[in-house]
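Could you join me in thinking about how sequence relates to backbone shape in a protein? We need material for that, and I hope you will provide a protein of your own picking. Once you have written the record down, we can walk along the chain together:

…
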Amino acid sequence: MQLPFTEQQFLDVFEAFNARAWPVVAGLWVATLWYTARFVRGHAGSVALSALSAVHWAWSGLVYHAVFFTRINPAAWLFAALFVLQAVAFVWFGIVRRGLTFQYQRTPRHAAAIALMAYALAYPLLVVLSGHDASRAPLFAVPCPTALWTAGLLLTASRPALPVLMVPTLWAIIGGTAALGLGVRPDLMLFPAAGCLVMYRLSLWMGSRPRPA
């Protein structure tokens, strides 16, 4: 895939983002770790998890994409709109309508979900171990780890509405494809995340089809 910017320009954006936004990045990482631990123990409410997800998507859309990434990629305006739309989806379906119920169970699907959420939390370390300078690399509170953590969370949802799944799945494909040309190897996990979301949605669809008499 031909990108409208170079790898160095891409990393320059993260250098500027990390220098200015690091307190929020650190705060969101701590909050996400805390809520993930509480969720596994059965103590995190679905509304709170929806609110945290909405904050992640709104922050990545309005701050990372709109303020920083638009400097090198005009398509970032579209990405910003998609991320804000996803934040609105979490607010509408998860908070206003109370239609998102997240619950941890001991099943293979939930094991995959927790693995993705843990991977997203380990993402900063994985990026550094892959050879990137922490000051010039995606760490947290940016699109790809946000999509990874969200994919894991949505895999634990009971029959999530299709609009809530669409943007995370789309971004997992976009981000994973971009990783092939930008050398951010931890982002390759976005492909399995997208696959898990698609398979989960298909399983829900198949389960809802009327069976022949």
Remarks:
- Residues 12-206 form one domain.
